[in-house]
Structure formats: structure tokens, C-alpha cells
Automatic annotation (TrEMBL):
<dbReference type="GO" id="GO:0006355">
    <property type="term" value="P:regulation of DNA-templated transcription"/>
</dbReference>
<dbReference type="InterPro" id="IPR001867">
    <property type="entry name" value="OmpR/PhoB-type_DNA-bd"/>
</dbReference>
<feature type="domain" description="OmpR/PhoB-type">
    <location>
        <begin position="1"/>
        <end position="67"/>
    </location>
</feature>
<keyword id="KW-0238">DNA-binding</keyword>
<feature type="DNA-binding region" description="OmpR/PhoB-type">
    <location>
        <begin position="1"/>
        <end position="67"/>
    </location>
</feature>
<dbReference type="Pfam" id="PF00486">
    <property type="entry name" value="Trans_reg_C"/>
</dbReference>
<feature type="region of interest" description="Disordered">
    <location>
        <begin position="78"/>
        <end position="98"/>
    </location>
</feature>
<dbReference type="GO" id="GO:0000160">
    <property type="term" value="P:phosphorelay signal transduction system"/>
</dbReference>
<dbReference type="InterPro" id="IPR036388">
    <property type="entry name" value="WH-like_DNA-bd_sf"/>
</dbReference>
<protein>
    <submittedName>
        <fullName>Regulatory protein ToxR</fullName>
    </submittedName>
</protein>
<keyword id="KW-0472">Membrane</keyword>
<feature type="compositionally biased region" description="Polar residues">
    <location>
        <begin position="88"/>
        <end position="98"/>
    </location>
</feature>
<dbReference type="GO" id="GO:0003677">
    <property type="term" value="F:DNA binding"/>
</dbReference>
<dbReference type="InterPro" id="IPR016032">
    <property type="entry name" value="Sig_transdc_resp-reg_C-effctor"/>
</dbReference>
<keyword id="KW-1133">Transmembrane helix</keyword>
<feature type="transmembrane region" description="Helical">
    <location>
        <begin position="129"/>
        <end position="146"/>
    </location>
</feature>
<keyword id="KW-0812">Transmembrane</keyword>
Length: 149
């Protein structure tokens, strides 16, 4: 997904995907691994093969990300700009215009740590769900099966 997102609307060859995902890591896999990976990606995105919204198969060539891609930095810059415009009183704007410091130096885009924390909680939820299933499955088997005599 990362490789497709780096080059949206561009057809990425199967060979390029193999290189990026496996060969650069020292693995050699057959074509079915890529097909399975794309299938898994589509399932995670709830994307259809017949009328795709995200990943389109280009026969004999590769795959293409057809969704709009927006990087986190662009989104954060817009959020910072909107917050800056809302919280900036008029007197400060007038001072900034009259000061000798260039206006490009007054705008600083800094990453928001809250976004990073939110992203770390998603795998934690998956781990908890996995542990819950791992505990409940053996209990269900023990409780729901008849003992043989």
C-alpha cells in the first residue's frame, strides 16, 4: 500500500511490487504471494475487484491506486493553518505584518503528538482482540463439546 500511495494513479508493475516488498528484504516469492497480498489489502479496505474504489488491477501490467492520496503532513499543515487563523487576534496579525521578520519564518508546522498516540492504540486493540479470541476459543471447545465415555 505504501508503494502504491507514493505513486497514486500510476501503474506499479508486479515486478516493482515484488522488489519493494520481498526482494529488497532478501526473499524470493512466486506471483501467488503478490496476488494474495493484494487480495488481503482489498479485504482490509473493503474494496471490490469488479468495481474498485482503491486498488485497480491493470491486466498484464500491475496495480494502480485510484483513490485520492493525502499525506499526513498536508493534513496537519491545513489543521495548523486553520487553528492559527482562528486563534490569531487582529492585533497580532497587524504586528506580524509590520515586523521585519519574514512572514514565512512566523509559520511553523510542527507534528502533533496526539496523532501518533492514536495510531499506536490501533495495534493494541488488535492484540487485545487476538488474546481474547485465544482465551475464549479453548473455553468454548471445552464447554460446548460432550465428553466421550
Amino acid at each position: 500500500l505504501w508503494l502504491l500511495a507514493q505513486r497514486p494513479n500510476e501503474v506499479i508493475s508486479r515486478n516493482d511490487l515484488h522488489d519493494f516488498v520481498w526482494r529488497e528484504q532478501g526473499f524470493e516469492v512466486d506471483d501467488s504471494s503478490l496476488t494474495q497480498a493484494i487480495s488481503t489489502l482489498r479485504k482490509m479496505l473493503k474494496d471490490s475487484t469488479k468495481s474498485p474504489q482503491y486498488v485497480k488491477t491493470v491486466p498484464k501490467r500491475g496495480y494502480q491506486l485510484i483513490a485520492r492520496v493525502e499525506t499526513v503532513e498536508e493534513e496537519m499543515a491545513r489543521e495548523n493553518e486553520a487553528a492559527h487563523d482562528i486563534s490569531q487576534p487582529e492585533s497580532v496579525n497587524e504586528y506580524a505584518e509590520s515586523s521585519s521578520v519574514p512572514s514565512s519564518a512566523t509559520v511553523v508546522n510542527t507534528p502533533q503528538p496526539a496523532n501518533v498516540v492514536a495510531n499506536k492504540s490501533a495495534p493494541n486493540l488488535g492484540n487485545r482482540l487476538f488474546i481474547l479470541i485465544a482465551v475464549l476459543l479453548p473455553l468454548a471447545v471445552l464447554l460446548l463439546t460432550n465428553p466421550s465415555q
